[in-house]
Amino acid sequence: MNTNTLVLLVLVVASAITVVYTKHTARVLFADAQRLEQENEALQTEWGLLRLEQNTWGEQSRIERIARLRLGMELPERKSIVYLKP
After folding, report:
1. What contacts 67, CB < 8 A, 6 or more positions away?
2. Mind listing the pLDDT tens digit for each residue in 13-57?
3. Rounded CA gap, 67 and 4, in Å?
4. How is residue 77 annotated by DSSP?
């Protein structure tokens, strides 16, 4: 085998190894990207549920119910309400 053939053979093998390594790296990165997308979707779903829960906790009817039950508060009768004009 002459030197040119040997150099070409080494270059072809090196190129093949580089292609295999690059494909493997791309597959690993793609799998990581897919996993992160799924994690993001799960977190977005959880965030939506938490916002819904937060809105529920702040509803006016819930606040009124707690004021009545825990604090013993009642709405005043109409005749006892005094309106002030500015």
Report:
1. 73
2. 999 999 999 999 999 999 999 999 999 999 999 999 999 988 888
3. 91
4. P
